[in-house]
């Protein structure tokens, strides 16, 4: 997007957006969007549509997307457990959302409801922003769910040549490695079992953790910290808390680290641009994020 506002973001227009998912009451994405719109002198109302609180099944996301379009929403974010389930309700997909088979942003416009994925671009931007000079030839991704798939895609787009995906669920890791191999035939993408994590990490430049371990309601470490050596950079996608037990252990062992806050901010930044047609200021979104965290 350029500095010029598109028609979607034409002066005077206000915006209506929402987040559909389960257990999203504490999400910082709604206030990030609202604050950034206010900073730009615009009105944006962003609502959480929590299927758990509404007593709805995850598959009802299709019904909710259709209702949001009829009610005049400009766009939506979609989160766990609906990122894949939403696909049949959409009229089109960006190339990346199609490749990932997952959508976290829906834009309503002349082409109907179009799905995008800003999780992958959010992680790619965060990595570029915070670890621009880190070696990225060989990387291990721990967790082959929605976040792991987005991160793996971002890493391969960013030039990673060897990627190992590890998950307790072998079929998830194998499936993701196979899809990535098809999409990035020039790269070496493999799956690995958790008991082979030490071997995979021994030859790696970096590790990205993409399981829910370390979240406030799911504390702990996803691996034996003795596997972390100073030359390995360690990224976590978990951002509640921002400083996870894994990142604390990694820093203590001399590793460079990247927390999940950058991914959270940049996915919101990219979604905000798509939904409103306005150009967000990434540094301002970072500031909103820091202020919101400090309030807690
Ligand atoms: N920072 C961000 O912007 C951002 C964006 C999306 C998701 N997330 C976070 O990413 C995390 C994962 O979310 P998700 O949607 O991918 O979840 P998911 O349930 O889709 O996938 C999690 C995967 O991790 C695997 N797993 C669980 N424990 C494991 C372990 N100890 N070792 C190996 N594999 C293990 C599971 O089998 C599953 O495949 C959550 O904490 C979520 O909040 C952050
Ligand atoms: O911040 C959150 O709560 C999110 O749910 C995180 C991640 O799932 C994003 O893809 C969503 O857009 C927002």
TrEMBL record:
SUPFAM superfamilies membership: Aminoacid dehydrogenase-like, N-terminal domain (SSF53223), NAD(P)-binding Rossmann-fold domains (SSF51735)
InterPro entries, per the entry: Aminoacid_DH-like_N_sf (IPR046346), L-lactate/malate_DH (IPR001557), NAD(P)-bd_dom_sf (IPR036291), Shikimate_DH-bd_N (IPR013708), Shikimate_DH_fam (IPR022893)
A Pfam family that the UniProt record links to this protein: Shikimate_dh_N
Gene3D superfamilies named among the record's database cross-references: Leucine Dehydrogenase, chain A, domain 1, NAD(P)-binding Rossmann-like Domain
Record flagged with keyword Transferase: no
Pathway the protein takes part in: Metabolic intermediate biosynthesis; chorismate biosynthesis; chorismate from D-erythrose 4-phosphate and phosphoenolpyruvate: step 4/7
The entry's keywords: Amino-acid biosynthesis, Aromatic amino acid biosynthesis
Domain Shikimate dehydrogenase substrate binding N-terminal: from-to ranges: 19-106
Name recorded for this polypeptide: Shikimate dehydrogenase
Organism encoding this protein: Nocardiopsis codii
């Amino acid at each position: 997007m350029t500095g010029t506002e598109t028609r979607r973001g034409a002066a005077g227009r206000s915006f209506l957006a929402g987040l559909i998912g389960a257990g999203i009451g504490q999400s910082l994405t709604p206030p990030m969007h609202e604050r950034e719109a206010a900073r730009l002198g615009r009105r944006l109302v962003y609502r959480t549509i929590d299927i758990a609180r509404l007593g709805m099944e995850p598959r009802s996301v299709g019904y909710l997307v259709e209702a949001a379009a009829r009610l005049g929403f400009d766009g939506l974010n979609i989160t766990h457990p609906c990122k894949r389930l939403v696909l049949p309700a959409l009229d089109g997909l960006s190339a990346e959302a199609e490749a990932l088979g997952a959508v976290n942003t829906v834009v309503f416009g002349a082409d109907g409801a179009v799905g995008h994925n800003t999780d992958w671009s959010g992680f790619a931007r965060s990595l570029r922003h915070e670890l621009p000079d880190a070696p990225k030839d060989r990387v291990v991704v721990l967790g082959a769910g929605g976040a792991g798939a987005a991160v793996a895609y971002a890493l391969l787009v960013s030039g990673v040549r060897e990627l190992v995906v590890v998950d307790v669920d072998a079929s998830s890791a194998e499936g993701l490695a196979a899809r990535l191999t098809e999409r990035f035939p020039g790269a070496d993408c493999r799956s690995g079992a958790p008991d082979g994590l030490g071997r995979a990490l021994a030859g790696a430049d970096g590790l990205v953790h993409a399981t829910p371990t370390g979240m406030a309601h799911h504390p702990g470490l996803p691996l034996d910290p003795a596997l972390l050596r100073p030359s390995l950079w360690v990224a976590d996608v978990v951002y509640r808390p921002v400083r996870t037990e894994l990142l604390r252990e990694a820093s203590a062992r001399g590793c460079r680290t990247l927390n999940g806050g950058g991914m959270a901010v940049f996915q919101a930044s990219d979604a905000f641009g798509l939904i409103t047609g306005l150009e967000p200021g990434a540094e301002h979104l970072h500031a909103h994020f820091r202020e919101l965290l400090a309030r807690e």
